[in-house]
Amino acid sequence: MTEIPTQEFLRKCSTACAGCGAVLGLRYVLKAAGPDTVLVVPACCTSVMQGIYPNTAFGVPVFNVAFASAAATASGMSAAFRSMGRQTNVIAYGGDGGTVDIGIQALSGALERETDFLYICYDNEAYGNTGMQRSGSTPRGARTTTTPGGKTHSKKDLDRIVAAHNIPYMATACSAYPQDLFKKVRKALSIRGPTFIHILAPCPPGWRYSSEKTVEMGKLAVKTGIWVLYEREYDTLSINAASKAARKKPLALEEYLKPQGRFKGLDEKALTDLRQSMERNWRNLEQEVAGPC
Amino acid sequence: MLTIATGNKAVAAAVKEVKPSVVAAYPITPQTEIVETIADYVDAGTLSAAYIPVESEHSAMAACIGASITGVRTFTATSSHGLLYMHEMVNWAAAARLPIVMANVNRALGPGWNIWAEHTDSLQERDTGWLQVYVSTVQEAFDTTMMAFRIAEDERVLLPVMVNLDGFTLSHTFQSLETVIPGDYLPPISLPHAIDVEKPCGYGPMTGPDDYFRFRWDIERSMRDSGAVINEAQRIFAEKFKRSYGMTEEYRCEDAEVLVIAMGTLGKEAEVAVDVLRNEGIKAGSLRIRWFRPFPDLDIRGRDVVVIDRDYSFGFGGILADSIRARYSCSVSSVIAGLGGQEVTYNDIAAFVRDRKPGTEHWFGVKA
Ligand SMILES: Cc1ncc(C[n+]2csc(CCOP(=O)(O)OP(=O)(O)O)c2C)c(N)n1
Ligand code: SF4
Ligand SMILES: [Mg+2]
Fold it and tell me: Does domain A21-290 have CATH number 2.102.10.10?
């Protein structure tokens, strides 16, 4: 088992909601990163959960930046630190909206320029900060305040977009698997160049389940196979054990969907689409592992 | 229909009645309720519009531009950083002469993040060729949004209109609201330069200095003509719906020796301050600027003027105060107040008037 440091960089005065998957993930990100770290945070729930000036709930410097700008700001910061000969970790910690929607151009540019930084997208599958509107990362069928009848478009495949940049290391993770997340952050930070981690971060108010069920919800996402844990070093992909096991004996997708109010009244068409995109994701990953045939 | 609503709901209700064909939507506090309410209308079928949930504000305005040039009615709403992020497209919409209507819920700019009322966001867009109007009540938000479409689409104008309302103090405040149906108040949109495949032409290609200059002058000429169109739209609105509005709203100004000039909800609060001052024997009046672009003619000669700016141009001064100084070569008592949602009461405003010193600038709450 990996030794996780007892030192905390997240103080108890965080103003995140009870059961927040994003703040849970961040706790382990910071434990893995340690004190020589700067967080670059675009507008998102993480801008709020720090608390209000002059207080801060975070034990590392946090540079709050404009919504679209996290990856570009981090590029500049990383270049400056490296030019001073400093190896300070530059971690952009942004939501799904700030990553797959308004921030995707800056992210793509920073990856292409081989920026030495870690970009983490914590994905609560909607715009949490502004009260749960749809994002490009909201799954089909989910109800948000701008998709009152359920979203009619599919979840954007962020990981394949990132993979197309052929970066040294990228991984998916989930707040419900903190050990796994911790290891992945350590690994990413040990590599020079652009690295990326996509954390599925269950969100009680957004997904509409009660706040003690965050870990359960994350585990169900993995065990049903709708969220796959894997790592990719350049073009070598490895699917993690928890997901391999889930693929062999998956739980029914409904077990993940049923407890979440956002999927209430999900119609057959949306359900079929969710199943199909889950299957497509698996097929893509398995083909990649198998290599060209 | 008589109801109660927030400023945001009032804007959305007006949009429902004017039936735009395309609405682009992107959330930002404190505007989000507008695009959420419109999403509900579209979902319920009470508004049949294409609702485009774009991925940024730059794309929100771009989507409105792409729709508008085909000749249909379009709407979007934003605030603060959202407005600034679409700045390039805000310019584009005006210079492409597109009668887009946008609600902007006034909010301060970061850093640090602040979601409360301030006018610096929209005033940074004052030179873009958009008409700008600032409202102060829920009813005024509804009525002005409806009028905005008529004004923007008038062929003497053909410029976009931004309807501004204060974050939270108006966007989230409940007041009574009477909704009306525009009927023939709002004729069908007819854009003379709408894209037409029967008459192919290039829109916005490389343009030499002479033509470019002429196009700029055209914008300014329409801006100047828009004053008459606004007055006409407001007069006909009053005849039809029994509520009247002007370029400015005057309260006890006739015999006033000192005028308080402000915009938005602070302008409304100033009316209460005027009553307080009148009871003390000070002949005060309130002149609330509704239309900031085009800038209205003001009757301020021979009186003291206290200008309250909920905005600032660093290195120069309050933007409203500067506009009035520049246009009327007068000495104003300038007060900077309410930035980032700072609370300003009518008693504070009354004190600004009592303590006025022409030619000075006072930052409310800052100790010298
Ligand atoms: C240019 C701009 N547009 C809109 C906003 C408003 N805004 C702040 S956070 C946010 C949503 C963030 O969603 P996401 O990135 O998924 O993070 P989450 O809030 O879910 O943690 C929005 C729309 C903004 N701050 N700036
Ligand atoms: S809305 Fe969701 S992501 Fe945001 S703080 Fe609350 S639980 Fe966390
Ligand atoms: Mg999110």
Answer: no
